Every structure is written in structure tokens, then in C-alpha cells.
């Protein structure tokens, strides 16, 4: 069952987004807002159930690490989700603005887009790697060893960047409204990257 749980999470995430897409087109901000709690819960469960995290060195003096208990996993997952929803959202909001998001208009949709991206890309990384500075230097530098968390985060960011391509084409379609294509690209990139990272772990991205 454990081996299939990451795939179940990916399937639920993808099917939920597909189901909500018509609503996203008609009301981007409202849809991103009401789907946010469900995404937060889904990511928190995925982190606690599917990602293995080692606790700090045990007090036995052996220097070995022990696997974190259930309660520790739940608390860590909730804290990682909260961190992503606050600090991660702020960082990604600034990044979106620097990459061309409207700074004085569409503030709420941009914030909500950043919140969804933070739960997808940031929360699993924070849960798995905690505050390990050496690992975070590799993650932020794009040099970390590929696994589903890191590959999913890279996929979400690349997908959001690619998703910006249709916006300036000027076709005046409903699905081109900000930030529909951005968040769609982020979800697609995350699910693809996460699946590839799970299937081909231990690689390094050619960055």
C-alpha cells in the first residue's frame, strides 16, 4: 500500500484540479480560495504518509538516527504546511512579481496563486529537509539529488514559467485570464516532476 500512496496522491491532486478547472476559468480568485484548504489537507497527509523524515539524533548516545514517530510526523507536516502558506507564499509572490505578475492590480489572485504553488513546491521540501542548510543550498542552487519532492518543486516552478507563454498572445480567451495558465502550468509541472522524481531517484538535474 505504501508504494502506491504517492500515486494515489498524484491522481487525487490531478483529478481535483481537472474537476475545478471550469470554475477556475470563470472565477480564478474564488476557486483558488475555496480549494486552498483542501490542497493544504491533501499535502499535509501526503507528507506525513509518504515522505520519510529522520528525527534528530536520539538521546541514547549511539549517534544513530531513528525514524520519527506518528505524532512527530503529523506535527512536522502541519508546521511545514503552515510555513509554506506564510513564508513560502511571500517568497513566491515576490518571485511572481519579479517575473512580470501585475504588482498593483490582481493582487489577490497573485497571492492565491503563490499560496497554491507554495503548498505544492515548498511544503514537501520543508517537511523532508527541515532546516538542513547544506541540503537547502543544493536545493536552491538546483543541484540537489533528484527525488519526488525536489523534482516536484522544480516541475511546479518550470510549469508556472511555461504557463506564462499564452498570456501575451492576445487571443482574448477566458482561460488566458491571470493567473489561470500560471497555476495550471504549476499543477501540471508538479505532477509530472513528482512522478519522474519518484520513478528515477538519485539523478542530478543538468543545471
Describe this structure in words.
There is one protein chain. The protein is mainly α. The chain has one domain (5-199). It contains eight helices and no strands. The protein has helices at 5-26, 28-50, 70-98, 107-121, 123-129, 133-140, 148-163, 180-199. The protein is globular, with a radius of gyration of 17 Å. The two termini are 34 Å apart. It holds the Pfam family PIG-F. It is a multi-pass membrane protein.
Fold topology:
Elements: H1 5-26, H2 28-50, H3 70-98, H4 107-121, H5 123-129, H6 133-140, H7 148-163, H8 180-199
- The rounded distance between the terminal residues' Cα atoms is 34 Å
Which word captures the global form?
A: globular
User: Residue share in helices?
Assistant: 55-70%
What letter string, H or E per element, gives the SSE order? HHHHHHHH
Secondary-structure-based class equals mainly alpha
Brief write-up:
This protein is mainly α and 207 residues long. The chain has helices spanning 5-26, 28-50, 70-98, 107-121, 123-129, 133-140, 148-163, 180-199. The chain has one domain (5-199).
